[in-house]
# Entry
Amino acid sequence: MPCTSAAERYAALIDSVEEQKARLFGSQPRGDVWTGDLARLFRLDPHRQLPANLEAVAQYIQPQDVFVEAGGGAGRVGLPVALRCRKVVNVDRSPGMAAEFTASAAGAGIGNAELVLEDWLEVQGVKGDVVFSADVTYFVRDIVQFVRKMEAAASRRVIITVWSVPPPHRNAAIFRLVYGEDRAPAPGHADLVAVLWEMGILPDVRVLTEPPWWDGELPRTREAAVQVAVEEIGPSDRQRAGRIIEARFDEFFRRVPSGYIPTWREPMKEMLITWEPWRKA
# Structure
């Protein structure tokens, strides 16, 4: 039966991603996958100068606000915001991310950041002035319920940020080369906005200026460049993928004085999607 609504199409994209993962990689390990080195990747200095994209979010925050983050992880956004508002509540179900959040807050001397170790779709009683979520909606099948809970929890504003190319899809060219098929795309900003419109929500949508915060420095050696290319390939296939990339290296990287530029990556911008909870179509 064809999908008849934006919400159904959104769920179908999630299902397609999960079906492909199961078919190519088999059953996935149970438990917390956002832990260890992966969780530490999202732990940044709360006292750092705000980058432009985060400054765009902070402009919506007032000093007396309670800022609630759905899936706040290690506090990349929430802990800097805690320095600018009355309280931050991070709702996240990952013990690995929670440990990094707690340690980062303590190390930075931040005492107004609360952790709620639960799934956003299941948590009860969390309220705030601004409710925010970053890079979570790519993985949420019941997107309508997710958004409704954000609206119900927010007294003044809802903010969602996503990338114009969902990060899991950024290595689509490498994926196709290794597996011989296109990577199933995760739902992106256009899919999310279509659901919001269907829900009667008219959000403001801004394209932010900065490139992905995790890109960092370019790889400086061929070996490091190959590792960048295969890092999102299934662990059992990385050695084979590395041989493929090495054999066709010049197709996928361009040498510049500062290192190797990955030419297969699609350009991407962060999208800020926001609305006042009572403002409907």
Q: What stands out?
A: The domain at 6-166+182-212+266-275 is CATH 3.40.50.150 (Rossmann fold).
